[in-house]
């Protein structure tokens, strides 16, 4: 193919948990005899009642179901905390770096974290939270967010974290969908020196959520925010009154652990449901093998806990493995573009795991910001969330990693619980831009649009043909939607929604979503969600949203908007609509381009031909394909003539 290949450095091949031969052998075992493989690797957890059944899964409609280790019981918080107390109680579990430079960092040992979690678990119980109940968490990147997650896991409550950048409306929708009556938040968040009014957002959201009777509020900035007597609880003082003993609840392997809302091609965001045993095996095992993690190493995943990466690789995976996990409240370019690498130097970070969008933004600022830091502690780099373009990969490798550190480009999804296609640093020669080979137990395949299996080097729709322990189990409240979304497109297989190429060496290259989902700065968004936000505006009659290439964000948001007839669209309205979408969903949904259009290209049956809009968004208009089935082909001429000038 002519692309660059980076061989496994010899010290990695010699010292890593698995080398190339080891990978081949373990992979073979994992797919030839999954029962035996997972019976063995399931032992990595402390079980209360050991499982006797391993895998009980079917992707077929007739007997559809996904169950792993189903008769075992365990507690995930005990696996993250209690099991380490005897050997690593005084080791640091969480190294927290605040947003600004003026505040001290925090070091929280396993023993301290255990105590904090027990107190908070007791507080939840005192507030009436029971096993199986949903707890909504709307917190910034502070250690208390991890405390809250682990406290839920300790008592068997199901957490639903809502990213602290989401709007009150988006928060309200998620609270209502999972019917939670308790919300955890803070007075404000701090990001890049700016304050985020989290408590005010909660107060606003709760106007739509009469079922919420308890809000536990952490004081982060000490701002003077509203306090509703009888409903609001001060986190620190209430937790301090609780006992530091809280026996971990016995939880079934298939009992739910968390819900995390994510966008699909249609409808409202869906509550991806993960259960306990299989997820825990997957998160801890992938964390250990993908990062070649050894206890004592300082590990930093720069994701927010509002996304699945934060769940699996800031909190659960690392803590199960007894890691020291860095938690960073801020952003890569505050106070300046050296911040990431200053934090690396400050804590002597050995493993750094970040998103391509941040790397591209930093790359643009020039190499000096990186080079003035040492980064000598770094051994391994990781990438996640979107395809990493080879230029950014090379920069990451050469400038950030001083050509010394392998890069693990991990492909996975909220639905998969953890990494699925990824290099292992001691085993996999790297090709910039390729997530490379499947993790143990993952059986990827490529299909054509008609569902025919494609062999060899080819392009196709990426499916996974058999279950793996970390797989999501359902869509909260809508099991039928779970089946329809993922298992009905290609019968008997899990459809990822991604397009993919496989090369001669069996390496997988994710090419991006092939459904109506876009990936903006590694944040997944349904075009339908942005469209419905736009049409909720009084002046908008119709809207269609597509992705567009964007140098930093990977994909940007391109919105075609048809206004009501009496409206004369102008720059003021454009700005109003941008602000409106930010308000309805959150800043991450800010449209990059709004093109006003008197009409959208529709078939005679009234269906919008999104293919044409996508091409316009991609600025690839030389061949729009067959437009003869359009009800009014002149609509396209108008769209082409009035494209906004893009920088
Ligand atoms: O399109 C793929 C892209 O992100 C999607 C999943 O998004 P989300 O559920 O938010 O999870 C992100 C964190 C795991 C995938 O369908 N994606 C994720 N990682 C990669 C990727 N695309 C290419 N390469 C990756 N490493």
Automatic annotation (TrEMBL):
Residues 529-607 form the AMP-binding enzyme C-terminal domain. CDD domains: ACS. InterPro entries: Ac_CoA_lig (IPR011904), ACAS_N (IPR032387), AMP-bd_C (IPR025110), AMP-bd_C_sf (IPR045851), AMP-binding_CS (IPR020845), AMP-dep_synth/lig_dom (IPR000873), ANL_N_sf (IPR042099). Keywords: Acetylation, ATP-binding, Ligase, Magnesium, Metal-binding, Nucleotide-binding. The modification N6-acetyllysine is found at residue 607. It comes from the Bacteria. Coiled coil: none annotated. Catalyzes the conversion of acetate into acetyl-CoA (AcCoA), an essential intermediate at the junction of anabolic and catabolic pathways. AcsA undergoes a two-step reaction. In the first half reaction, AcsA combines acetate with ATP to form acetyl-adenylate (AcAMP) intermediate. In the second half reaction, it can then transfer the acetyl group from AcAMP to the sulfhydryl group of CoA, forming the product AcCoA. CoA binds at residues 191-194, 309, 333, 521, 582. The lineage of its organism: Bacteria, Pseudomonadati, Pseudomonadota, Alphaproteobacteria, Sphingomonadales. Transmembrane segments: none annotated. ATP binds at residues 385-387, 409-414, 498, 513, 524. This is Acetyl-coenzyme A synthetase. It comes from Novosphingobium hassiacum. Residues 82-465 form the AMP-dependent synthetase/ligase domain. One of its GO terms (molecular function) is ATP binding.
């Amino acid at each position: 193919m002519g692309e660059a290949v980076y061989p496994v450095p010899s010290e990695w091949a010699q010292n890593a948990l698995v080398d190339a031969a080891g990978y081949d052998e373990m992979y073979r075992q994992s797919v030839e005899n999954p029962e035996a493989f997972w019976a063995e690797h399931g032992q990595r957890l402390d079980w209360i009642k050991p499982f006797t059944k391993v895998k009980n899964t079917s992707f077929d409609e007739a007997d559809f179901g996904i169950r792993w280790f189903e008769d075992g019981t365990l507690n995930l918080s005990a696996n993250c905390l209690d099991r380490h107390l005897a050997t690593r109680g005084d080791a640091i579990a969480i190294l927290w770096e605040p947003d600004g430079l003026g505040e001290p960092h925090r070091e929280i040992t396993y023993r301290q974290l255990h105590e904090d979690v027990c107190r908070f678990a007791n507080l939840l119980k005192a507030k009436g939270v029971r096993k199986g109940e949903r707890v909504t968490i709307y917190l910034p990147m502070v250690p208390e967010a991890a405390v809250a997650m682990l406290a839920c896991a300790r008592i068997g409550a199901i957490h639903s974290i809502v990213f602290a950048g989401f709007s009150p409306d988006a928060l309200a929708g998620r609270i209502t969908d999972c019917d939670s009556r308790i919300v955890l938040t803070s007075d404000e968040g701090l990001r890049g020196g700016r304050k985020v009014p989290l408590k005010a957002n909660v107060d606003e959201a709760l106007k739509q959520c009469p079922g919420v009777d308890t809000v536990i509020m952490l004081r982060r900035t000490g701002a003077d925010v509203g306090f509703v007597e009888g409903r609001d609880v001060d986190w620190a003082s209430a937790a301090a009154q609780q006992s530091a003993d809280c026996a971990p609840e016995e939880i079934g392997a298939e009992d739910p652990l968390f819900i995390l809302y994510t966008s699909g091609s249609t409808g409202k965001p869906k509550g991806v449901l993960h259960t306990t045993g299989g997820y825990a095996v997957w998160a801890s095992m992938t964390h250990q093998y993908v990062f070649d993690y050894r206890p004592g190493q300082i590990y930093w995943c720069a994701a927010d806990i509002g996304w699945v990466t934060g769940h699996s690789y800031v909190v659960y995976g690392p803590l199960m493995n007894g890691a020291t996990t860095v938690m960073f409240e801020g952003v890569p370019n505050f106070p300046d573009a050296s911040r990431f690498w200053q934090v690396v130097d400050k804590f002597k970070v050995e493993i750094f795991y970040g998103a391509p969008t941040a790397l591209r933004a930093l790359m643009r600022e020039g190499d000096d910001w990186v080079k003035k830091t040492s980064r000598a502690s770094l051994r391994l780099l990781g990438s996640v969330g979107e395809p990493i373009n080879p230029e950014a990969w090379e920069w990451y490798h050469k400038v950030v990693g001083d050509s010394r550190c392998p890069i693990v480009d991990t492909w996975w999804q909220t639905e998969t619980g953890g990494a699925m296609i990824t290099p292992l640093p001691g085993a996999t020669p790297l090709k910039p831009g390729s997530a490379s080979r499947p993790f143990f137990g993952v059986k990827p395949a490529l299909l054509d649009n008609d569902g025919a299996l494609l062999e060899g080097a080819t392009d196709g729709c990426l499916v996974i043909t058999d279950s793996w322990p970390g797989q999501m189990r359902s869509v909260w409240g809508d099991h039928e939607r779970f089946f329809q979304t993922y298992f009905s497109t290609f019968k008997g297989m899990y459809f990822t929604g991604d397009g993919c190429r496989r090369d001669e060496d069996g390496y997988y290259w994710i090419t991006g979503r092939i459904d109506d989902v876009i990936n903006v700065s590694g944040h997944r968004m349904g075009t339908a969600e942005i469209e419905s936000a736009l049409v909720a505006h009084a002046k908008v009659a119709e809207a269609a949203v597509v992705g567009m290439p964007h140098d930093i964000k990977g994909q940007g948001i391109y919105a075609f908007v048809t206004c009501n007839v009496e409206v004369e669209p102008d720059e003021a309205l454009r700005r109003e609509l941008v602000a409106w979408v930010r308000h309805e969903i959150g800043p991450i949904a800010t449209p990059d381009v709004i093109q006003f259009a008197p009409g959208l290209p529709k078939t005679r049956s009234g269906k919008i031909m999104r293919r044409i809009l996508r091409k316009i968004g991609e600025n690839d208009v030389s061949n729009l394909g067959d437009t003869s089935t359009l009800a009014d082909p002149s609509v396209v001429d108008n769209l082409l003539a009035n494209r906004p000038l893009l920088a």
